[in-house]
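In this section we walk through a basic example: taking a raw amino acid sequence and producing a predicted 3D structure, encoded as discrete structure tokens. The instruction is simple. Fold the sequence below.
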Amino acid sequence: MLATVIGTIESAKVAQKVIDELLKAGFKDQDVEILEGDEDEIVAEIVERGFDEDDARGYAKAVSKGKTVVAARVDDAKAEKAAAIIERYEASDESTELEEEQAVSEIEEKLSVGKSKVASGGARVTTHVSEQPVEKTVTLRDEQVEVERKPANRKLKPEAAAAAFEEKTVEMLGTSEEVEVNKEAYVTGEVSLGKRVEEHEEKVRDTVRRTEVEVDKLKPGSAKKR
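The resulting token sequence is shown next.
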């Protein structure tokens, strides 16, 4: 009497390994297959093989979620052997092998504190020119040329008498002092700008986030036979 053994495998790649091992174990190629089709077609196929509709519906939903259903028609005497092969792939790490690796990252924020310069006050020094009147007294000299006649009765020597009757001109100039104003600049004071550095400590408080990954192990369904 024939029985049907059905198992849910993680991927088509692993399902092919199940079929290869069933064939290697002596099961016939025409009796081992992957059930395909829409949900109703798969349900009908499994029910036809002797399973109840609830079980068939469960296998069909697994297919809709990307699983692969492997079915084998075998003699009752070999049903346990076929079921053992299928269950081994259902429970092995190979059955969870994904064609594309997927990863969930654990993310954690770290607090980074930096410093930036901002204006906190200062001083501005500006120069401008002002004028104020000043006075200073100075003594000036004026020279005047004065002419004075004095009576005289003095006998000239012969040689002096000859020269005395020659024409001549005598000049004398008087001078006057005038005020000359000169200005000289002197440094009378200095204003300097500088910086004095003071340090202080300031505590920074904030919150950081992190993600935590929880892992739940899922048990595969066991192969069933009818």
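Looking at the output, two observations stand out. The mean pLDDT is 83. The helical segments are 12-24, 39-48, 53-64, 76-91, 158-164. In the next section we compare this with other chains.
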